[in-house]
Amino acid sequence: MFALIEQFYIILPMTIVLIGAFTLMILSHNKSFELKHFNLVAVLFLTIALAIVMIQFGNIPKGYLFEDIIGKVFIVDDFALLFDIMSITGVILTLLINTDYFHSRSYFNGEYFALLLFSLFGMILLAHAHELVTAFIGLEIASLSIYALVGYHKNNHVSSEAMMKYLVLGSMTGAFFILGTALIYGVVGSTTLNDIATYTNGHNNEESILIIVGATLIMVTILFKIGAVPFHGWVIDVYEGSPFPITMFMASTFKIAIFAIALRLYLIDFVSLHGQWNFILQTITILTLLGGSWLAITQSSIKRMLAGSSIVHGGYMLIAITSVGAGSQIAVPAIMFYLIAYFLSAVGAFGILSYISASGIKQLTYEDFKGFSERRPYLAIFMSIFMLSLAGFPSTIGFLGKFYIFTAGVESEQFLLVGLGITTAFISIYYYFKLIAMMYFYPKNEPQTPIRYTFSSALIVLMAILIIWGGIGSSLIPFIPSADALIDIAKGAINSIG
Amino acid sequence: MIPEQFFILATLLFSIGLVGVVSRRNLFIVYLSIELMLSSVNLLLVTFSRLDQSMNGTVMALLLIAIIAAEAAIFLAVIIQLYRSKRSLDSDKFSQLTQNKGQL
Fold it and tell me: Has residue B100 been placed in a domain?
């Protein structure tokens, strides 16, 4: 039990994000405020929240917030705080790296930043949820904000269409989530994760058949949100139809938040159901890896290719989730490491795309990158680094991420999945290196207007440095924490979940 | 009260909703079908709550109604937006994103 004042201190980051969102909403009616001021205010609030979470991380014992009022609904542990750090950092980077894009498009205004902060609030709630209805509320707060953001360019038909597709399918799978919750409530009489775990541990599978059904329905929603293959129909269209900052946000930050709840459910709640699920998860993993690769290969637009490849990356993480059920120890830290690795690479790649398209309105295809290295030699180098990292080339952080995932798979003897994962990693070289080849080995087909160096380009450089730093590993640079330290932090956070 | 009747009713409503989402083209009917699915789950929760002699399920149903209302706001907004762009709510007409692109 925490003291009352301590509880308010723990909830402070969340409150700051929420206050920031409301402040931005109120400010958005003020005509004298410009876009860069809104951006600054949003980043300011998020930085304060991030600083507080950083201080809290590792210094707060595991416990429940306001336990005497709302029961064991809102959990505080290192696992949730680590995901808080990752999500808040993700939103800050999304805001900063797209500065140029915001200024080049007339449809962005103050509410846009408010919606992003509301979405972040939902994600933080999701990471801390220790009860299924709370998790659903967090998920819906995050998703509803994202629906609105996808259709933010309201005079663009494509944007509205993408929003419609995401909204219809997203709400439908949301109904599955609460159906699962209702079934579990009917059996257990409570929806807190502790009670469910106690029930499943004390009863055999015959008696908890309704829990298996309910948990599977909840898993369907989670798999839909991360875009696993039988539920992937929306991914490419929605990613293409939404503005670049939102695509980046969905591909990286939202996925992190979804994995927070997926891991929590899978690790505490449904431990005794691992046997039932392993076959389903293995099948879905195989389909996701193959289907995502096929989708990524067939695209000609870079944005659609990255959307397809994000499905494949979800597939790699599903390999590790399957390994958790098969008894691997390193699997969960591997997922968290892979999330960070994918986050860095995807934000970098989408950041370059949004930076380039800030000076034009064209959809970027492979053809547009012909001779890119002559026009923009430095950007071409950074783009190559991001592509190498996404493909999992050694000496980048993407390689280490895949290495840990496959280690987890081998540890739990999932040789088929690991073999398939390595094969799709080789296939992915085709569509990532095609871009590198376009940039370096083709003459430029048309002159383009030069792009200014701005704040966004500085952040792109930072991402590239982080990727290399993460890929080099531990021993080379003294006194600076490295990729191994990240794995250790993740392991410590997993132990707190217990 | 016979709980089985309520379970059967909730199952029927959920299934009707699901079929409606899958088979109907008009976006407004799709939206109403999703509402039907969510409301049938509410019925299920309230039935369980009554069987359990506790108020937990009823409170959950109330919370879910709030979420459903928020979803309704976004749905109606996008329906108006789409109607303005094409003067129709037939979901087959909104296929700009899928044209001539590689699909699974």
Answer: no
